[in-house]
Amino acid sequence: MAICILSGTLLGYFFPSLSTFLSEIEFANVSLPIAVVLLMMMYPIMLKVRYSELLHIRKNAKVMAFTLVINWAIQPFVMALIAWFFMTVVFASVIPEELRIQYMMGMIILGLAPCTAMTLVWTFLAKGNLSCALLQVSINDILILILYAPIGIFLLGLTTGFSVPLDTLFVSILLYVALPLGLAALTRVVTNKTKGVGWLETHLIEKVDKITPIGLLITLVLIFIFQGDKIIAFPYHLILIAIPLLIHTYLIFSVGYFGSKKLKIPYAEAAPTAFIGASNFFELAVAVGTILFGVHSGVTLAITVGVLVEVPVMLSLVQIMKRKKAIFQFNASESAT
């Protein structure tokens, strides 16, 4: 990952014509190189969604209700508040105003959608309940189609005064969520009928899943090619952007962690509940940021810093959950109350 960042930054700085060439490959203000790579990443993510898990929603009603509160009633608003505070108060004297506003919008866009597929990774590493995580992810992906745009318009307008074009945001959701979600659902239906569920889970998903990390690395190279001039000019901005993102991640994790303990949610379900809000849907955030503001904007840079912060931080949170597993051991009667 570090090699991708360094190579992309140097290519963008020393070969500005390459950045110009790539940025001109667009359609309807959408960077086609970024769009292709993001769609490559989205499809394997959506292929993991099992809609059959929705049948278990009543069995996990308490966990799902708490998850929804974290994901949609707490997490986006906390991110907006933290971004506003740091970019308008704490860093007001060290970052130019235009960039501060762009960084703020990038962090808000990043915080609008809680994580999807990576929740499964963190849950697996923490030895949590993958079925519960799949249910949370499935519901989350459906709610993104409904809630992402209105909450995004409200928070961006409230904190920055930016009027988000509804049609552009709607197209982003259709292109980067609805389309890969629909294709993945169709793939599951056809494959289940022709090859069986076992083949889908053990062969197709396993092979297709390798696309996601490759796509992530390519995305980082492309974005840092476009951002090379900013990073060379303001290298310390990466650290300043990372500070509020770190605070947000640990804070939202704490809400899930202590809330699960208070609600007596067993460890296996508490783990994905604590992870899903703390992590973010990076791929969608990049897509929305580049469509609304372009690949050269500070918005896109702030979103990209988010993924650099997220991976090591989430790994540390996995270790915290594993070390504290004993405090989430409740008897059946306690868990049901």
Tell me what you see in this structure:
By secondary structure, the protein is mainly alpha-helical. It has a single domain (2-327), classed as Na+/H+ antiporter like fold. It contains 16 helices and two strands. The protein has helices at 2-14, 16-23, 32-47, 61-90, 97-111, 117-125, 130-160, 166-194, 197-208, 211-226, 228-233, 237-262, 267-278, 282-293, 298-323, 332-336; strands at residues 26-27, 30-31. Strands 1-2 form a two-stranded antiparallel ribbon. Helix 4 packs antiparallel against helix 12 and helix 13 (267-278) packs antiparallel against helix 15. The longest helix has 31 residues, at 130-160. The N and C termini lie far apart (45 Å).
List the helices and strands and how they pair.
Layout: H1 2-14, H2 16-23, E1 26-27, E2 30-31, H3 32-47, H4 61-90, H5 97-111, H6 117-125, H7 130-160, H8 166-194, H9 197-208, H10 211-226, H11 228-233, H12 237-262, H13 267-278, H14 282-293, H15 298-323, H16 332-336
Antiparallel strand pairs: 1-2
Helix pairs in contact: 1-2, 1-10, 3-8, 3-10, 3-14, 4-5, 4-7, 4-12, 4-13, 5-7, 5-14, 5-15, 6-7, 6-13, 7-8, 7-13, 8-9, 8-14, 12-13, 12-15, 13-15, 14-15
Which stretches are poorly predicted, pLDDT < 50 over at least 5 residues?
A: none
Average pLDDT taken over every residue = 84
Helix content: over 70%
Strand order in the largest sheet: 1-2
Distance between the termini: 45 Å
Q: Which class in CATH terms? A: Mainly Alpha
- Report the principal-axis shape: globular
CATH architecture: Up-down Bundle
Can you summarize the main beta sheet? 2 strands, antiparallel
Q: In total, how many beta strands?
A: 2
- CATH topology tier name: Na+/H+ antiporter like fold
Category from helices, strands and their pairing = mainly alpha
Order of helices and strands: HHEEHHHHHHHHHHHHHH
User: Rg from C-alpha positions?
Assistant: 20 Å
Q: Please report which band the strand proportion falls in: under 5%, 5-15%, 15-25%, 25-35%, 35-45% or over 45%.
A: under 5%
